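Re: your question from the hallway

Yes, I did run it. Sequences:
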Amino acid sequence: MISRLKLFAPLIIFSVIAAVFFRLENRMVSGEYDPSMLPSALIDHPIPEFSLPALSTERLLTNKDLPNQAYIINVWASWCISCRVEHAYLNALSQKGVAIIGLNYKDRPLDALQWLERLGNPYQFNLSDLKGQLALDLGVYGAPENYIVGADGIIRYRHVGILDDNVWRDKIVPLGLSW
Amino acid sequence: MRIRIQQYFLSCLLLVCCVLFVTTSFASSDAKNLLAFQSQEHRDRYYQLLDDIRCPKCQNQNLADSDAQIAYDLRNELYKLVQQDFTDDEIYRFMSGRYGNFVLYDPPLNAVTAILWLFPLGLFCLSIMIIAFRYRFSRPEEGHTDAD
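Structure:
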């Protein structure tokens, strides 16, 4: 009897493995799981120390200039096509009263200012990170990236790629921050 | 006459190849020596670390291979750190503190990676147990019925 059952062992093992991969595939198709997205090493850590010029005025800004409420740090550049796609959603968010700080990443300041004039400015202010110093400390590896920061200045979530309604609803609202 | 021309053509080709070979080999050695280091030891460490740190953007390439912008930035950062005599451990911590353990090819043992170490060990223990069990409970006269 037992030796009969043993015949089915390979089939059972195969079924289990197939089920695992099928589930993984489903989660990848639905966008719930993306193997190329890395978890941020800075979740639950404060924003790194920085001192960078503002995009428009070139006044030096530091951590003290960051808002005292929950906010988003949006890493963008005028050369970044996905940022162009994302921009309309950021405009809508800022109209709803969400505080967004821009980290203008390795951009030409003139190009960036022109972009804001043409497409609207959803940012409270923009940091001009020409060499990508703060971006490196944040663990940015491509624009756009969005860091969701609590009122206490602690990074709660990082989204690599375009921020849209789905991400907002599924990932950011559950964090329970008051905007 | 025709053979003459052929020979002439071939020798020209050979010459061109030689010239190209010599110039490219000069070019590549130039590229390698472009960065100035305090010592040969610093240079060796730099190139060793380039191989040992993974690019966060092009995820199957190390820093030496990758042409991504971020890999370029991290190479610059790595150069600075090596020149400032940071130890390998400190450099690994610098990189993983920003980009996560993903960039290390030899990640530390923690809750997420434990399965990598424990699974083979568990499999080994399990197989020992199965062998011991079978050895203990299989009587000689039943030995061949099992194999049928």
